[in-house]
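Q: Give me the 3D complex with adenosine-3',5'-cyclic-monophosphate.
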Amino acid sequence: MTKNNFTLTLIKPYAVEHGYVGHILARINEAGFRISAMKYTQLSREQAEAFYEVHRNEGFFGRLIEFMTKGPLVVALLEKENAVGSYRRLIGATDPDKAEDGTLRKLFGASVELNAVHGSDSDENARREAAFFFSRLEIF
Ligand code: CMP
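A: Here is the predicted complex, encoded as structure tokens.
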């Protein structure tokens, strides 16, 4: 993997609970991403707070942590040229009401809080988030 060819996604507990994992992974593959690491896990409160540290002062932080720790989620590293931007186009705006038709958040999310997936917002955060979830031995 090089500097700008990977991003990290979370298929959130809401989407797992509703049976969307297979549909979302199929669309990720169809969009030309290669999955270079993947796991099914559940975040502790401490882990979710650390992952979303930048949002700690937002009014929605408590609900976000509650929502992200509710059940298992899927974490994956996705490889493609310009992966961060390309994946953000595939997932669409955070708020499903504002996301374009055909995007993952439009198709599978219910609201800005109950959204289906996360995608890194910069190459730097993709590196930070990859290191948060995966060791070198888990990336292929
Ligand atoms: P995500 O890409 O995982 O990054 C931060 C998350 O905070 C975001 O998706 C949303 O699920 C969640 N969130 C909850 N409320 C808001 C809000 N008002 N604006 C932006 N993000 C929000």
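A quick observation: Residues 55, 60, 64, 94, 112-113, 115, 118 surround adenosine-3',5'-cyclic-monophosphate (CB under 6 Å).
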